[in-house]
Amino acid sequence: MSLHEQRLQIDAKRRTGVLFCVLGGIMAAVSLAVLIGDPQSIGGWLSAVTPLLLVPLGIFNIVTYRRELGAFEDAHGRDAGLQDPAA
Fold first, then answer.
1. Distance (Å, rounded) from C-alpha 58 to C-alpha 7?
2. Do 66 and 49 touch, CB atoms closer than 8 A?
3. Model's pTM, two decimal places?
4. Which residues, in sequence order, are CB contacts of 44 under 8 Å at separation 6+?
5. What confidence score (pLDDT) does residue 82 get?
6. How far apart are CA 50 and CA 56, in angstroms?
7. N or C: fewer beta carbons within 10 Å in the chain?
C-alpha cells in the first residue's frame, strides 16, 4: 500500500468520527424535541439511545486518527503521502 493510500485510510477515520459526532448531535436534538412534545413516546426514548452510541464512537475514531497520524508521520515524515493539487 502506498503512502498516499495509507494517509487516505487514516484520514477516513477522522471523517467518520466527525460524521458520527455530527449525526449523534442531530439525533440527540431530534429525540429531545420528540421527548419534550410527548414524554411517554417510546420512539423518543429509543432514539435517545442512538446518540449515546454514535458520539462516543465518533470520539474514539477521532482519537484513533490522531494516534495513527502521529505514528505515520513519525515513521515517514510530516508530508508523507500528501499530493500537491493539480494546477
1. 19
2. no
3. 0.82
4. 31, 34, 35, 37, 38
5. 86
6. 10
7. C
Instruction: Report pLDDT digits (tens) over 15-73.
Output: 999 999 999 999 999 888 888 888 887 877 888 888 999 999 999 999 999 999 999 99
Entry field: residues in the chain? 87
Q: What cell was used for 78? A: 510530516
In the chain, count of helices (H) and strands (E)?
2, 0
Angle at 17 between CA 77 and CA 70, to 5 degrees: 20
65, amino acid identity: Y
Q: Mean pLDDT across the stretch 6-16?
A: 94
